[in-house]
Specification:
By secondary structure, this protein is of the alpha/beta class. It has helices spanning about 35-40, 45-70, 90-105, 115-130, 175-185, 190-195, 215-225, 240-250, 255-265, 275-280, 280-310, 325-340, 345-350, 355-365; strands at about 5-10, 15-20, 25-35, 80-85, 110-115, 140-145, 150-155, 160-165, 315-320, 340-345. It folds into 2 domains: about 5-130 and about 350-365, ATPase, nucleotide binding domain (Nucleotidyltransferase, domain 5, 2-Layer Sandwich); about 140-340, Nucleotidyltransferase, domain 5. Helix 5 (about 175-185) runs parallel beside helix 8. It is globular. The two termini are about 25 Å apart. The protein binds 5'-O-[(R)-(carboxyoxy)(hydroxy)phosphoryl]adenosine (KG4) and zinc ion.
């Protein structure tokens, strides 16, 4: 099989990204234009602004990805683009551009599910390291700003298929990081700064109740004396902890100090760790550390329970939150105790990028699962 160079395009949220990947196993170029500065004043992603910024960035980002890969529009073998899930207007920018390129250049076009992309970020880097042997069943935790989903992943002749065995019932874990950081005046996006501040606080200072999930499917079946032990579910919930942090802030009279922190940080163009630390008292640092510990323990605990229930041989942890240092350390430690190898993408490929889209497209390209020219964005696209 000759090498195939796939140009990937990703625009589902607040990063405009393009990349070239060779045969799903070598990252040749990877360009990401972040919109953080645009959305920062609003404390979260503003969909209309995201679409406008994608429009501005898409052509130069794709050009840069091609030129860094020593490729041209004509030399690549296929074009891959994120179809969903994500912001409809943002997705449409990438899709329209990818369609136009594919039509004008007469190249195959592959539509990719963003969540499948996150899973293939791990596969791409493992293949690049020379690790071609994977033990199945594979379980993937996709944990990002929009998702906290557990998938059993299977490979067959025709590509990959996925079975969802758990997801968040409300907020995603990354969303909880972002909302809590905003609530305590740390700005957007919250995950990276909480990650860096947490080691400066006491993770045992504040006790958060673990989320209690009632698994209706299991209860209903139990009612019928028919417990489905073959397909247990492992759902998550992170809206409760956000409310608990809000209550803690009220009870401990932290509002005024939060307002001061917000104003001080808003006046610094690119705050450094020292700037954050200078505005945070012990109470705040302890709260940040305890919040992160609670999320990490919940993610690791439930995922490893799923590993046991499904006799999983290999665990992937991917998506923006997989960049979190404490999450990585805890998964590595507890995964080793459990006897399951845990693979993460590098930090650069944990958060949104287009290399993962080009990598996920490769098996579809080989199987000739190409997109029709009339396909459109799907904001709530499901992964199967
Ligand atoms: O995968 P991603 O780039 O975009 C989505 O598909 O949502 O994930 C972004 C999310 C944000 O919520 C961000 O706060 C979180 O990932 N994140 C982190 C870290 N880096 C990014 N959360 C915790 N620790 C980090 N180091
Ligand atoms: Zn993502």
């Amino acid at each position: 099989m000759p090498d195939a160079y796939i140009l990937g395009i990703e625009s589902s949220c607040d990063e405009t990204a393009a990349a070239v990947v060779r045969s799903g196993q070598q990252l040749v170029s990877n360009v990401v234009a972040s919109q953080i500065a645009t959305h920062q004043p609003y404390g979260g992603v503003v969909p209309e602004l995201a679409s406008r910024e994608h429009l501005r960035a898409i052509v130069p980002v794709v050009r840069q990805a091609l030129s860094e890969a020593n490729q041209t529009y004509n030399s690549v073998d296929a074009i891959a683009v994120t179809q969903g899930p994500g912001l409809a207007g943002a997705l449409l920018v990438g899709i329209s551009y990818a369609k136009a390129l594919a039509f004008a250049l007469d190249k195959p076009l592959v539509a990719v599910n963003h969540l499948e992309g996150h899973i293939h970020a791990v596969l791409l880097e493992e293949r690049q390291k020379g690790n071609h042997e994977l033990q199945f069943p594979v379980l993937a935790l996709v944990v990002s700003g929009g998702h906290t989903h557990l998938y059993l992943a299977e490979q067959n002749n025709d590509g990959w298929t996925y079975e969802n065995i758990g997801h968040t019932r409300d907020d995603a874990a990354g969303e909880a990081f972002d909302k809590v950081a905003k609530l305590i005046g740390l700005g957007y996006p919250g995950g990276p700064i909480v990650d860096r501040l947490a080691p400066h606080g006491d993770p045992d200072a504040v006790k958060f109740q673990p989320s209690q999930i009632k698994h209706r499917d299991r209860r209903e079946r139990r009612g019928q004396k028919e417990v489905d032990t073959d397909h247990p579910r492992f759902d998550f919930s992170y809206s409760g902890i956000k409310t608990a942090v809000l209550r803690y802030v009220e009870v401990h009279g932290m509002r005024d100090s939060i307002e001061i922190r917000r104003k001080v940080l808003a006046n610094i163009a690119k705050p450094k760790l020292e700037d954050y630390l200078a505005t945070c008292d012990r109470l705040t640092l302890d709260l940040v550390a305890s919040f992160q510990r609670a999320i990490v323990d919940d993610l690791v605990g439930k995922t490893l329970a799923a590993v046991r229930a499904y006799n999983v041989a290999t665990l992937f942890v991917t998506g923006g939150v997989a960049a979190n240092s404490e999450l990585r350390k805890t998964f590595e430690r507890d995964g080793a105790q459990e006897g399951v190898p845990v693979y993460f993408p590098s930090r650069a490929l944990s958060t949104d990028n287009a290399a993962m889209i080009a990598a996920a497209a490769y098996p579809k390209f080989l199987a000739k699962h190409l997109a029709a020219m009339d396909f459109s964005a799907e904001a709530s696209l499901v992964l199967r």
